[in-house]
Structure formats: structure tokens, C-alpha cells
Design goal:
There is one protein chain. Helix content is 74%, strand content 0%. It is an all-alpha fold. α1 runs antiparallel to α17 (301-313), α18 runs antiparallel to α19 (337-353) and α23 (409-422) runs antiparallel to α24.
Length: 460
């Protein structure tokens, strides 16, 4: 008994797409982006006054700002902030409120910084730097609706800074506006050409726009610049998979796994294991599968069960049994009823096809069908087992029942045809194969149908 190759391929595609979906999230900005030299240069430049789109600074305001310069130069941000906030000017001066917001941004007091930027804008609505830095605050808070609005206003007022365009692009990535994000990333690189974050973002946009070769070329540059950043390797792996370059994806995933404990999460461990199984490298898959179950942050049970199903697909019953037992320990309480049924069904399949205890497996399948007469997978599995027992009439009834379950008609007709061939009912088998071919024209089934047709002729 075995699943069809088509079923195996569909399962693989499903699992890989699940992994690709995780890669669809915008790459995180590097941990040090907000301390990056390019960003700091841009942000610190925002302390300077631009008279055309900023409030005129009075003598009193200038005096206060000059008085905090020694503190700022000495890195005494809190003391400088206290001096600004302690002045009554902070409530009436856009410049003072803005500078207070800047220092709070640097200190990580984002909520307070936003308040002071908003105060500055209430006093001077076209204050470009306040719009931009307020956008940065919202970006650090992952509030992209507000961040985009503030950044777009800054650009409308003439901001051409790379950090502004880069954050705008990042926000549009969050909105899945990939073409717009790509355009913004290109503009960001005009003034910040060495920014690795913008290059990585550009590569991710190119991937979403199906421009994989360009994305890969750019990612090579990014990885060269930051060889220890694992998210870039994972993005590159997802592109390799979309290009059907599984070997390259395996190399990348395995490299990340070897970078150190926890570098490759449990989901991607299972993906790597599935790719090894697909490549016929079961020995390489085994330790990766087991490691996934031993990780503290486990993958969803559905992903682990998919890996188990893969092991049954390649008919490595020792691996399937060992992984099944380890899975039971790692996930002692699977609450989802469908996943529970899938686990039972796969365990039954191992019992039957490994030859360890076919009778036990059959009982489990009978129980599953009793609970849910529309369990098409269990109906097909039990029907195949009855075929091996030469209980053809029961097998025929099970296959017919499975055929009435949505999504199982094609497979059930193939199985019925096999049952009819086994009992020399060749014309009935041809009829079932013709109906199957109408649902899904497959060359191998057409060849099988033609052979059965000749048998029918010869038998008459």
C-alpha cells in the first residue's frame, strides 16, 4: 500500500508554501539599525534648523538650546532633557518641544517623544523634521498606519533623506505594497547606498515581484556584508525553493542550523528535514526531525504531523515509527480534533504498512470511520488494507464511500479500478479509469487504462 506520487508532491508543495508564507513577512530591521551610523547621522542632523520649513527660533529659545549644548556634547541627555522640560518655553515653542522629543527618542521614551513632536506640530504644522521624526517613533512602535502618514507628509514637505524613504519602504512592505516599497527603497539608496537594510528590503520586494534572479544577486551582497544574519539566508532559501532549487535551499538551511543552537527554528528544522526526505537523504533527515521535537519553542503540531506524513510517504517505517513516538511525547495533548485524527491515521498506516501490527492499525481506521463516516483518507487506507486481505467486496464498498467525500473522487476511482482488475472485472475497471481521467488527465493513468482495456479485450 502506498500513497500516490501526486499526493506526495501536493503535500510537499503545501508544506513549502507554508514555509514561504512565513518568509513573506518583512525582514526585521537589523537590531542595530536605530544605532546605525547612517541613521544617527541623519537623525542628529535633524537637530539643525532649516528656516524654510521650520519655526523661527527666538532669542530666548536659542539661549535655552545653546545652554544644553555642553550637556549634549557630554552625553548627558537626561540632564539636557530636564532643562528643556523645566522651561515654560516647552509649552509654547515648537523648537523646544521638538528638541525635547528628539532627546526622548534617543532615550527610548517613545510615547513621550511622540507627545512632544505632536506639540511642536500643533504650534507649527509644517515642521518637516517633526513630521519625519514622529514617523520614526510610530515605526519603532510598529504603528505603520500612523508612521506612513507622518513620513509621507515629511516627503511632501521636501524631505529627501534616505532614512525617511527607507522607513517609508519598510512600512509599505508591511502593507504588502511591494511595487511602491521597491520604489521607495531605490530612493533610499540614493542617499544611503551602503545601507544593508535597504538592500535586503529591495531584495525582498524583488522576490515578491517574481524577480528572483535580481533578488538573489542583491542578497549575495547583503550576506557578504552581514554573514552572521540568519534572516538573509532564510529569505534566500525561500527564493531557491520558489525556483525549484532545493539543493541550494538545503545548503542554506543547513548552514544556518550549524551557526549555533536556536539559529534555525523548529519550523525550518522540519522544512529542512522534509527537503532531505524529498532528496532521498533519510539519514540526514532523521537528526534534524528529532532535533525539531526537542526544541523548547516547538513548531505547530500540524507541521510536525506533516513531517511524519513525509516519512510515511517515503516508506521509511523505522524513521516514521521513531518520529511518531517522539512526536507523541513532544505533543502530549493535541487539542485540534482533525490533527488528532490525522495522528491516529498515520500511526495506523505505520502499523499496517510496516507489517508490525496490521490488525491494530485496521481497528484504529475502523474506529475513525465509525466516528466520522466521511473520513475519506481513512476509508481509502482501510480499503487498501482489505485489498491486501483479498476482501474485495469490503474494499469496493469503502472505496465507493470515499468517492462520495469531496476531494476524494479521483483517488477512489483509481482504487476501485485496481479492485476490479484484481477480480477480473476489466470493463468496470476501464469505466472507473475513464471517469478518473476526466477529473485529472494523468499520463501514467492513461497508460494503465490502455493496458486494462487490452486485458478486457483479451478476456472476452
Amino acid at each position: 500500500m502506498s500513497y500516490s506520487v501526486i499526493s506526495y508532491q501536493l503535500l510537499l508543495i503545501s508544506v513549502l508554501l507554508t514555509s514561504l508564507l512565513s518568509a513573506a513577512e518583512p525582514l526585521p530591521l537589523s537590531r542595530d539599525y536605530w544605532k546605525d551610523e547612517a541613521f544617527l547621522k541623519s537623525f542628529n542632523g535633524s537637530y539643525r534648523v532649516n528656516a524654510q520649513i521650520e519655526p523661527v527660533v527666538t532669542t530666548a529659545e536659542r539661549g535655552l538650546l545653546v545652554s544644553i549644548q555642553p550637556l549634549m556634547a557630554a552625553g548627558k541627555r537626561k540632564e539636557a532633557l530636564e532643562k528643556l522640560i523645566g522651561s515654560p518655553l516647552v509649552k509654547t515653542s515648537a523648537a523646544i518641544a521638538y528638541n525635547a522629543g528628539n532627546i526622548q527618542f534617543e532615550l527610548g521614551e517613545l510615547k513621550e517623544a511622540a507627545g512632544h513632536y505632536q506639540s511642536a506640530l500643533a504650534i507649527f504644522p509644517s515642521f518637516r523634521r517633526a513630521h519625519r521624526n514622529l514617523g520614526f517613533v510610530y515605526a519603532r512602535q510598529d504603528d505603520w498606519d500612523k508612521a506612513l502618514k507622518s513620513l509621507e507628509e515629511a516627503i511632501r514637505l521636501g524631505d529627501q533623506d534616505g532614512a525617511t524613504y527607507g522607513q517609508l519602504a519598510y512600512g509599505r512592505m508591511h502593507k504588502e505594497q511591494y511595487a511602491s516599497a521597491l520604489q521607495a527603497y531605490r530612493l533610499a539608496q540614493l542617499t544611503q547606498p551602503e545601507s544593508v537594510d535597504w538592500k535586503a528590503g529591495t531584495a525582498q520586494c524583488l522576490q515578491h515581484l517574481q524577480r528572483n534572479e535580481e533578488a538573489l544577486a542583491l542578497l549575495d551582497e547583503v550576506i557578504t556584508a552581514r554573514p552572521t544574519e540568519t534572516s538573509y539566508y532564510l529569505l534566500q532559501s525561500s527564493i531557491y525553493l520558489s525556483m525549484d532549487r532545493s539543493d541550494d535551499a538545503i545548503t542554506n538551511l543547513d548552514l544556518v542550523r550549524r551557526m549555533g543552537e536556536g539559529k534555525l527554528d523548529a519550523d525550518n528544522h522540519l522544512l529542512l528535514a522534509n527537503l532531505h526526505l524529498r532528496a532521498g537523504s533519510n539519514q540526514l533527515a532523521r537528526p534534524v526531525m528529532m532535533a525539531a521535537l526537542e526544541m523548547e519553542n516547538k513548531a505547530p503540531a500540524a507541521a510536525a504531523l506533516n513531517a511524519l506524513e513525509f516519512a510515511t510517504q517515503v516508506r521509511d517505517w523505522k524513521l516514521a515509527r521513531d518520529f511518531s513516538l517522539a512526536l507523541e511525547k513532544a505533543y502530549p495533548e493535541i487539542k485540534d480534533a482533525k490533527l488528532q485524527q490525522k495522528q491516529q491515521r498515520l500511526t495506523a498506516l505505520i502499523d499496517i504498512d510496516s507489517g508490525e501490527d496490521p490488525a491494530r492499525g485496521a481497528k484504529v481506521l475502523e474506529s475513525l470511520i465509525k466516528e466520522n463516516p466521511l473520513d475519506g483518507e481513512s476509508l481509502l487506507l482501510l480499503g487498501r488494507y482489505r485489498m491486501t486481505e483479498k476482501r474485495y467486496q469490503e474494499a469496493e464498498m469503502l472505496f465507493q464511500q470515499a468517492g462520495r467525500v469531496e476531494g476524494h473522487e479521483y483517488t477512489s476511482r483509481i482504487e476501485l479500478a485496481k479492485a476490479y482488475v484484481a477480480t477480473s472485472r476489466y470493463r468496470d475497471a476501464v469505466s472507473q479509469l475513464d471517469k478518473a481521467l476526466k477529473i485529472r488527465p494523468v499520463e501514467a493513468i492513461q497508460t494503465y487504462r490502455d493496458a486494462v482495456y487490452k486485458l478486457a479485450d483479451a478476456a472476452e
